[in-house]
Amino acid sequence: MAQMRKRSRTASYALLPTWFAAIFVYIGTMVWSIRLSFTDSTVFPSSNYVGLAQYARLFRNSRWLASLENVVIFGVLYVIGCLVLGFLLAASLDRKVRFESMFRTIFLYPYAMSFVVTGLIWQWMLNPTLGIQAFVRSLGWTSFVFDWIVSRDMAIYTIVLAGLWQGAGLVMVITLAGMRGISEEQWKAAQIDGIPVWRVYVSIILPQLGPALAAASMLLGMGVIKTYDLVVALTGGGPGSATEVPAKFIMDNLFERQNLGLASAGATVLVLSVLMAVVPFRYAVYIRSRRKGVQR
């Protein structure tokens, strides 16, 4: 017993640097940023409090409002698209196809890349003079047009395409792990009843993947909120503000426009968005674990 207590204390001491970093670095800088959002700080921090003036200015800014609209469009399409594609890929591999390991690696490989690399790859592919459009026209179809990346109305969907290419593999791995945890007896019973394979996945397998899909959705949602490097590498936020996102707006005001107060206000709004996404999920997990404990 004494040895176990000694090991527990040793583990606690080993975690002290992590706790120090979490409390003083992450939480401390977050509180400091929130404080600056209530000041008129520009190039340097200021102690002149202006109340909610920065937030009022933030939500009167057309670029900020455009960035919110863009991140909602990107987020909805990205999360739903990744969940659908990831589930379909997982269902395909779950049938124990030949060379499954190779296909799993191929589908997951884009997720191992940084968003900067993904953005550069898709920037080249979508460039009207170098990429897909130029290639198809070189085959003789001279009227073919695929210029989404330079269209104000369609540019945001190029971000979605690049995001789907990278994020679907993550959902595939999480979902496939959930599928492999489902009893084979259910498949045998479905085969005896003559239920089609697609119906088994939709009506039997999918409802049991709730926790896996919820975890994948949370991870994807967190990625949506902090999306920055993909946009910068792919479109630079343009044309105009067609692909502007909150993280880019914050970085631009912090380093280019030297408006620390406004950037801090935008960062605070993003922090609140993250909390709104994480807290309900964690609460649901907590309630579920308590119910399981009571049932036992």
From TrEMBL:
The keyword Membrane applies. The chain crosses the membrane at residues 12-34, 71-93, 105-125, 154-179, 200-225, 260-285. Residues 68-281 form the ABC transmembrane type-1 domain. It is found in: Cell membrane. Keywords: Cell membrane, Membrane, Transmembrane, Transmembrane helix, Transport. PROSITE patterns: ABC_TM1. The keyword Transmembrane helix applies. Its main location: membrane. It is a multi-pass membrane protein. GO terms for biological process: transmembrane transport. Pfam families: BPD_transp_1. One of its GO terms (cellular component) is plasma membrane. Belongs to the binding-protein-dependent transport system permease family. This is Carbohydrate ABC transporter membrane protein 1, CUT1 family. It comes from Rhizobium tibeticum. The gene is ugpA_2.
